[in-house]
Amino acid sequence: DAKTTQPPSMDCAEGRAANLPCNHSTISGNEYVYWYRQIHSQGPQYIIHGLKNNETNEMASLIITEDRKSSTLILPHATLRDTAVYYCIVRVPLNTGTASKLTFGTGTRLQVTL
Amino acid sequence: DTGVSQDPRHKITKRGQNVTFRCDPISEHNRLYWYRQTLGQGPEFLTYFQNEAQLEKSRLLSDRFSAERPKGSFSTLEIQRTEQGDSAMYLCASSDRARGGSNSGANVLTFGAGSRLTVL
After folding, report:
1. Per-residue b/e over B9-24, b at no fewer than 16 CB within 10 Å?
2. Mean pLDDT of the residues in chain A
């Protein structure tokens, strides 16, 4: 699975957009970008994923650059409840071959403040 | 079904004792994963089941660790002769192979809240 690089921490004011970057310059053509987050004392929670097109769901938007070497997770109106560690993971789909697991890095700790 | 359930949520034990954690996945999910997470680190993969078959084990899973999923439903993770280094959060996750189709990449993991182990 491709390695990802994320800033260790970021701050965001409540109500503003939080833009979390992720570099994945060694991504392969069939690898997806997944984002999970982990709120303190809880298990990780799936947010969104994408291959090459930008994606949006009820939680967030995912912007993937045209060369697919980086992406940005956007929380459009951050709230205090969005304070968490955000993990960017790049890998082939989970039902592809024998590669079955997600490999988490250390993520970005997002602190949303008043 | 309310999600992935793990029990117990917290376990404190003395070094050398055996402990067992249980995971009940989402009922229609045929894949089950165990991860371990230490303070300040992301979750680390331990092992993976598809139905009752254990298909992958991490090198982190020493001989003192054993995981089972006897009927392809719930799973247990046992740690024998616990050591202080085993202190961590043990996370279980499940996934449904069919969700989203094979080409969508939407084979996401749903995690439980974890079982926190403290070895004294």
Report:
1. eebebeeeeebebebb
2. 90
